[in-house]
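Hi all, posting the design record for the shared folder.

TITLE: backbone redesign
STEP: 1 of 1
STRUCTURE INPUT:
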């Protein structure tokens, strides 16, 4: 098939067995690849009672038809697991860099990992040759060390996706790091790899992706790149300041979370902004494979207690999580915490917001001194924040509790309401009291408190594709539904969500049709996205998630205490019933008519 290698690698770690199988065209057209393909694979072997850290859990690494092609930002891959150790829902994460294109160039669309090894191993996929390699000597090493040692063995052009000590120690907020600084960050996928004793997957290949209509594709790509260059976000904001360009913008809207979301305005926000990052610590810019935007930041903190010789980031979400959410404005400390997360394999959003939750638990007298082991975990204490990161990776002292994530941490100390999470996943850097649509997306996103399932910040704050009033609820249900389904297409294609600031469904339908030869139009593509969204919802329903879980922390029923959004509250209830009606869902579950309509 055009756009696909047509092969999936099945890995049985328990039996030490590697098998190839094919992907059929009907499945590919129905689910595309990436997230959609991963969900279909998981659903075919679905076990609602699976232990997320047991051998029966399945983890899938998948590319899509756009991965490794000239489709702008086609350098990503998607990771799915049958059950997340953090949320108990479907595990789902996405990453850039160059690992995805190199997996495809090695001859595979996806890798499916089952079972668990008795001893540490890593998977090598090079030019179509696959083997499991002893990784005993790599166990305990950081992601940087692991990457260096594996590429020294098989070649510097290889790409390595691996776990660090956090994943080995099965921290529920651990992640997978590829190319040293790119993270498949959310829902604890590092812990799933750790439970399987799978240290890394190294890929390299030179196989080219076949495109059905290369001439038309060339014109489509040319048009898409022109739109991206002319767009103020993809052509100017992100290339100039990276994702941290949002710090001052979101703060000025009163939606920048402070001290565990106690308020939404941080007077010291400019000290941790993208502009300040560029002025103080930027040493270069980086782009993922095939990306014309180049939002990556190469940074260094040259001296001081938080020095970093060379790293990448921090991104906007990371700055909020370790910065304002912890009451901290020291950008050098935030950069250090980010670097440690990359090195040790931790999701920066969940790590930072879990520390913020712990700080409020301390503030309210919920965590006793004996549990802190001398760590002064209070808002504004940058040193304690950085210390807490490595303690979490090695599950030392209070780090053993932080490794559970904020919800389980809150439950342990008698205040689960202080966890700013949905379905167990910590919510990112936008207060839903100030931006109503993103609140509806948080509540209804299948993987939990996720902003990139339906990035309503684009219309509500940035005015793309059109400007919406962030404080009203009118029309938001339809917008969220459409954005969520479109995002399922993006994550199944698999390309970067950032290109959607400039590109829409017609661009996607045009280029994907050129790649595959299928002649898909906007409506078919959006239905594919809706099918994927509903399949994931159908699966989490079987885990017990439904209407009761499509909610927000009670904090957002309290008026914003100060800043530009003072007095605002979340109006989730005004939007939720309309959202269900548009979706064809009953009490948070897809109805039988909707499932038939989508071929599920």
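Okay, here is what came back for every position:
SEQUENCE:
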């Amino acid at each position: 098939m055009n756009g696909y290698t047509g092969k999936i690698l099945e890995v049985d770690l328990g039996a030490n067995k590697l098998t190839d199988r094919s992907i059929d065209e009907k499945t590919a057209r129905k689910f595309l690849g990436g997230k959609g393909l991963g969900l279909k694979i998981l659903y075919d072997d679905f076990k609602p009672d699976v232990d997320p850290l047991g051998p029966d859990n399945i983890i899938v690494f998948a590319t899509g038809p756009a991965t490794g092609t000239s489709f702008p930002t086609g350098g990503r891959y998607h990771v799915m697991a049958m059950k997340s150790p953090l949320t108990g829902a479907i595990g789902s994460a996405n990453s850039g860099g160059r690992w995805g294109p190199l997996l495809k160039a090695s001859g595979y669309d996806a890798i499916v990992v089952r079972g668990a090894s008795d001893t540490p191993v890593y998977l090598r996929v090079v030019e179509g040759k696959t083997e499991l390699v002893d990784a005993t000597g790599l166990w305990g090493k950081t992601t940087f060390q692991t990457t260096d040692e594996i590429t020294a063995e098989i070649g510097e052009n290889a790409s390595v996706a691996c776990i660090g000590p956090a994943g080995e120690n099965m921290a529920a907020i651990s992640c997978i790091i590829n190319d040293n600084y790119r993270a498949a960050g959310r829902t604890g996928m590092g812990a799933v790899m750790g439970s399987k004793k799978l240290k890394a997957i190294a890929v390299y290949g030179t196989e080219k992706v076949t495109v059905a209509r290369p001439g038309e594709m060339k014109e489509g790509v040319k048009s898409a790149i022109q739109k991206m260059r002319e767009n103020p976000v993809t052509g100017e904001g992100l290339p100039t300041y990276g994702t941290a360009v949002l710090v001052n913008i979101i703060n000025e809207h009163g939606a920048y979370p402070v001290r565990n979301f106690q308020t939404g305005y941080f007077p010291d926000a400019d000290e941790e902004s993208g502009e300040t990052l560029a002025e103080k610590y930027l040493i270069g810019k980086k782009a993922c494979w095939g990306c014309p935007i180049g939002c990556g930041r190469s940074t260094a903190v040259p001296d001081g207690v938080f020095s970093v010789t060379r790293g990448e980031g921090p991104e906007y979400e990371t700055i909020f999580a370790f910065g304002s959410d912890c009451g901290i404005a020291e950008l050098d400390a935030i950069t250090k915490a980010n670097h440690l997360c990359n090195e040790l394999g931790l999701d920066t959003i969940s790590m930072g917001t879990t520390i913020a939750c712990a700080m409020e638990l301390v503030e309210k007298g919920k965590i006793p001194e004996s549990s802190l082991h001398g760590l002064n975990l209070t808002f504004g204490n940058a040193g304690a924040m950085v210390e807490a990161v490595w303690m979490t990776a090695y599950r030392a002292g209070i780090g053993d509790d932080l490794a559970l994530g904020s919800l389980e941490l809150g439950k342990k100390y008698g205040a689960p309401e202080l966890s700013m999470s949905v379905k167990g996943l910590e919510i990112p850097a936008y207060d839903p009291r100030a931006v109503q649509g993103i609140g509806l997306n948080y509540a209804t996103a299948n993987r939990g408190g996720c902003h990139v399932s339906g990035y309503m910040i684009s219309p509500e704050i940035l005015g793309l594709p059109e400007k919406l009033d962030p404080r009203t609820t009118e029309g938001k249900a339809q917008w969220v539904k459409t954005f969520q389904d479109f995002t399922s297409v993006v994550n199944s294609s698999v390309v970067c969500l950032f290109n959607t600031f400039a590109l829409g469904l017609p661009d996607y339908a045009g280029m994907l049709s050129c790649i595959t030869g299928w002649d898909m139009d906007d409506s078919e593509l959006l239905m594919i996205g809706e099918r994927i969204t509903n399949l994931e919802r159908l699966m989490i329903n079987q885990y017990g998630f439904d209407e009761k879980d499509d909610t927000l922390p009670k904090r957002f029923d309290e008026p914003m205490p100060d800043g530009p959004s003072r007095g605002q509250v979340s109006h989730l209830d005004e939007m939720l019933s309309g959202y269900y009606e548009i979706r064809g869902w009953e009490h948070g579950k897809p109805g039988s008519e909707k499932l038939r309509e989508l071929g599920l």
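COMMENT: The two ends are 24 Å apart (CA to CA).
Let me know if anyone wants the other runs.
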